[in-house]
Design goal:
Elements lengths: L5 E6 L13 H18 L4 H6 L2 E12 L8 E11 L2 E10 L5 E13 L2 E3 L2 H6 L3
Antiparallel strand pairs: 1-3, 2-5, 3-4, 4-5, 5-6
């Protein structure tokens, strides 16, 4: 496993599975988003707080690559790195099944900043994370 800025341990729930007994593809986006929110919270920030200050970080694009399925009640690690690419903030996120550390999902989530309703370079965010 490569080095990550942040790792969150989570567990799947039975109701997230489809008829084949594997986690439905849409649920991975929930895991990835929960990881971003938890990481931000642990840094002392929140998307809600920023929104109230007129600063919104919004998803512009998501690319997901499914590698190995997760099943109900399986522990997994949701990992995150962050980099800046022009006006975009790119969250590089991977999910590993904890029992054997197999890569389950690899994702890139690009986000942009809107300040008081106008698209911004996001310098306000970049400063907070030394990007």
């Amino acid at each position: 496993m490569k080095k990550y800025l942040y790792t969150l341990e989570m567990e799947t729930r039975d109701y997230e599975c489809d008829l084949q007994g594997i986690v439905n593809n849409a649920n991975y986006q929930h895991y990835l988003e929960a990881t971003r929110h938890k990481w931000l919270q642990e840094q002392g920030y929140s998307f809600r707080q920023w929104h109230e200050e007129g600063l919104d970080v919004v998803v512009a694009e998501i690319t997901l690559k499914y590698k190995t399925p997760l099943h109900g009640q399986e522990a997994f690690l949701s990992c995150l790195n962050l980099r800046r690419d022009g006006v975009r903030f790119v969250f590089e996120q991977d999910i590993y099944r904890k029992s054997d550390m197999k890569l389950c999902v690899s994702a890139q989530v690009s986000a942009v900043c809107i300040v008081n309703g106008a698209l911004s370079r996001g310098d306000e965010i970049a400063e907070k994370f030394n990007l």
